[in-house]
Amino acid sequence: MARDAPKSRGMKSLLSPPRTAIVLARLLERLDASRQPVDAHQYQGVAARLAALLSDPEVDWQPLLADSPAAAALYENLHYGEAGLCRTPLDAAMRAELQARQAIAAARAAAAPGTPSDAEDRP
Fold first, then answer.
1. Which residues are registered as beta bridge partners of 15?
2. Which tens digit of pLDDT belongs to each residue from 34-55?
3. Whole-number Å distance between alpha carbons of 44 and 64
4. What are the beta bridge partners of residue 59?
5. Which residues contact 80 (CB under 8 A, 6 or more apart)?
6. Which residue among 17, 27, 44, 73 is least enclosed by CB atoms within 10 Å?
């Protein structure tokens, strides 16, 4: 009977992100920052190709995600079921929520002058 090969007891080292992923992340950043209208099909194609690469668990994506907010957002969306919004800085999320509350209160006040807004109802 043949013996099984000894199993490695060390941690498995992760691979670096492939060059293709880096190029796609940079392209996605450029598309996001563009002041000119971007073709939706092109944007979806770049995002889909990057998403396919980001699904590889053998790669250490952290350096790429730290360098590319667009890739980080895409990664977060792909892994939301397991991790939630773990890559979104809490202070930025709180600022966005406060701005949204202010915008909603302003819209309500403008829609119905003379009625108290939610902000005024709070102690």
1. 59
2. 999 999 999 999 999 999 999 9
3. 20
4. 15
5. none
6. 44
